[in-house]
From TrEMBL:
Its cofactor is FAD. This is FAD/FMN-containing dehydrogenase. GO terms for molecular function: FAD binding; oxidoreductase activity. Belongs to the oxygen-dependent FAD-linked oxidoreductase family. The keyword Membrane does not apply. Pfam families: BBE, FAD_binding_4.
Length: 441
């Protein structure tokens, strides 16, 4: 049975917040749902009151404040059921990727999860989903069999290629604009483990590593996932001594192919770029996939994310990135390799149309305005190498306007999303998100 929490009640402050504190939510009501019937009741309650609906699980990707809304917490809806014969999993709306990974691993199977297993599986998938198996198998949204979703009229619907196909197209990549997902069925893949970890280089070889990575990434197979994280570590005694007070270039790797000798050869090429201050690349069971990026999970933070997609990352682009993201840069930068299956159309078409990127570039600042300005200067400098697109999963609270959201889609696809929105949610009840406004509004 759901719990309804109002402002001033003991659990209100804890349940209105997620991991990313860049947005503060002050909803009219919080519904801590336990089942689909609770979600139906919450959506109907919002409709009766004439207020919007927000959805919060882990809160890693906030968008706009849920002020005055009915905020549905889905975290208690976390059951995962695996069918190893069909290689699929039924995932409830509040399950984290960690739960899916642990349910699939005993069968030698893996989902297309993100780099942090602590992120909610549904929200990630609705935005598209690009993780460490994506170059080999595609977007997470490409491999959804069906959704069970509560739409704006309070109905609980099965949405698939056979049932409600237009809505199925829109939900896979269109974010949380079309309803509250109570469960989904997704494909699983025979990947029991990876050759993975990170190679960390000190500031002395920072530029050499960037240029070497640019050459290396252009040649590797689809079975090799990689990214580069550039980060200045504080001069804090709590930091490991090899990182403390230094600018570190993290090259994160996950080779999922069967030819492990090939994987080791590819890693050795990167090791030759310079001495490593940390080297954790090893054979990993898939249950340890989160150790590769080892993203923070314990202490909520305010993070201001912005991203652009790059056509390529050549030597000129590497030099430009080095100029703006080297020692002293007051923001985190991630360059992630795309291509492979991410550049190919889905077997069942969906709203992810911008498949022409070779890399994504994500820059994350703290709330300081000066630091955010410098972050934006980096992205401006990299625009000559960009496609003009963004990716929804990597967007932040500063890019919630319709014009900003539209950059993630082909113009024709964005227009189609707006038409489907008008047909399913004409009053824009689901607008506490990276909103696609209904056509005509």
């Amino acid at each position: 049975m759901s719990i309804v929490i109002r402002p001033g009640e003991p659990e209100y402050d804890a349940l209105r917040s997620g991991f990313n504190l860049a947005v503060e939510h002050r909803p009219e009501l919080i519904v801590d749902a336990t089942c689909a019937a609770d979600v139906v009741a919450a959506v109907r309650l919002a409709s009766d009151r004439g207020v919007p609906v927000g959805v919060l699980n882990t809160g890693h990707g906030p968008s706009v404040p849920a002020d005055g809304a009915v905020l549905i917490r889905t975290g208690r809806m976390s059951t995962v059921d695996v069918d190893p014969a069909r290689r699929v999993a039924r995932v409830e709306g509040g399950a984290s990727w960690r739960a899916v990974i642990e349910a699939a691993a005993p069968h030698g199977l893996a989902p297309l999860n993100g780099t942090s297993p602590h992120v909610g599986a549904v929200g990630y998938t609705l935005g598209g989903g690009v993780g460490l198996l994506a170059r080999r198998f595609g977007f997470a949204a490409d491999h959804v069999r069906w959704f069970d979703v509560v739409t704006a009229d309070g109905a609980h619907r099965r949405v698939s290629a056979e049932e409600n196909p237009d809505l199925f197209w829109a939900m896979r990549g269109g974010g949380g604009n079309f309803g509250v997902v109570t469960a989904m069925e997704i494909d699983l893949f025979a990947v029991p483990g990876v050759l993975g970890g990170e190679l960390c280089f000190g500031p002395e070889v920072f530029e050499d590593v960037l240029h070497g990575y640019a050459r290396w990434a252009a040649e590797v197979p689809d079975t090799m996932a990689s990214s580069v994280l550039l980060l200045d570590y504080p001069d804090d005694p709590a930091m490991p001594p090899e990182l403390r007070g230094r600018h570190i270039t993290h090259v994160r790797l996950a080779y999922s192919g069967d030819n492990r000798a090939e994987g080791h050869r590819l890693v050795e090429r990167l090791r030759r770029l310079g001495p490593r201050v940390v080297d954790t690349v090893r054979e990993l069971p898939y249950t340890e996939i989160g150790s590769i990026h080892h993203e923070p999970v314990d202490v909520p933070v305010p993070a201001f994310d912005r991203n652009i997609m790059l056509r390529d990352f050549d030597q000129d682009a590497a030099a430009t990135l080095a100029k703006h993201a080297g020692p002293g840069a007051p923001y985190l930068v991630e360059l992630r390799a795309w291509g492979g299956a991410l550049s190919r159309p889905a077997a069942v078409p969906n709203a992810i149309g911008r498949r022409d990127a070779a890399f994504s570039l994500l820059a994350i600042s703290d709330p300081d305005v000066a630091n955010r300005t410098r972050r934006d200067a980096l992205l401006t400098a990299m625009r000559p190498y960009a496609t003009g697109a963004t990716f929804p999963n990597f967007s932040g609270v500063e890019d919630t306007s319709p014009d900003a959201v539209s950059l993630a889609y082909h113009p024709d696809d964005f227009a189609r999303l707006r038409r489907i929105k008008a047909a399913t949610d004409p009053d824009n009840v689901f607008r506490i998100n990276f909103n696609v406004p209904p056509e005509g509004r």
